[in-house]
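Quick note —
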Amino acid sequence: MLILLSSTSYRLRAEQLAKILATFRVKAGTSGSIESIDASPKMAAKEIWSLLGARSLFATKRLIVISGLFDLSSAESKELVKMFKAKELPESTSVVVLAQEPLPAMTKQPLVAFCKKSNAVKTISVAVPSGSALSDEIIARAQAAGVTLAPPAARSLLERVVDFDQLLQELDKLILYALSKPDQSISLKDIVDMTSSAIEADIFGMLRALSQGKRAEALRLLHQQLAAGSHPLYILAMLRYQFRSLMLVAQAAQAGAGPAQIQQNTGLSPYVIRTMQQTLERYSVDSIRRIFNKLLNADEAIKTSSIDGDVALDLLVLAMSA
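Predicted structure written out below.
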């Protein structure tokens, strides 16, 4: 089986892929294998076909996820189409082709025309919701995380963030913050405070300073945020979001994933992945996990009033930059 999975949203595509993988794991059980291929534009059609058509010695069912296939040259794309038409994949093999919409023009990429027209290809295009459906979507995602997002607050968020993937990233941060509040709700004020690009720049600046061992710079940016009126729990939520994203990228990179595969595994945008990769030289997966636990401990200490919020953040930055 050949499946073309595409979307304008990295996040929605990653979520749909996760559903496909989960279904495969249930059906194939322990005898199934899941493999990933990050196709290079310079790869030859024969090389790709040999990877797709190989039979596994250990697995009775294979699911191969391949990205970058539409970046092949026109000539190699034509060759691969010929192979798909002339040969059959092993019956035990399913292939999911990942693509970012809009797809390349059919005239430049013969593989696009084949995938769209062939009855042998199952096409799954995940649409980004719009209008009232978009508002319903983010409200439902908040509810699924145990957080209340009222329609007026949802509309305010939609007015501030246009790009869908960025919208979901902003929602992730708001949810993390709301979970630390007694009422576990996202207010209009939270949205105004937390979707400020200047504030986020300061938070990421703190992360960059910490990754470079610049303790004084990290403390300066922290005190700048506190002086501007940012609540300590809000700053913690932002840091938790950054380190959670960093953990996802670090784990994928440690497993040998390339940029396209990291997008596939995490659902993060290419920009976020690039910025996270720039900070990974100082951190190992274990050190990121330790820092994340320190963030959780600081959150708990502030909530239980066992320590002043400003002091807790100072101690946290000192520990993170040690």
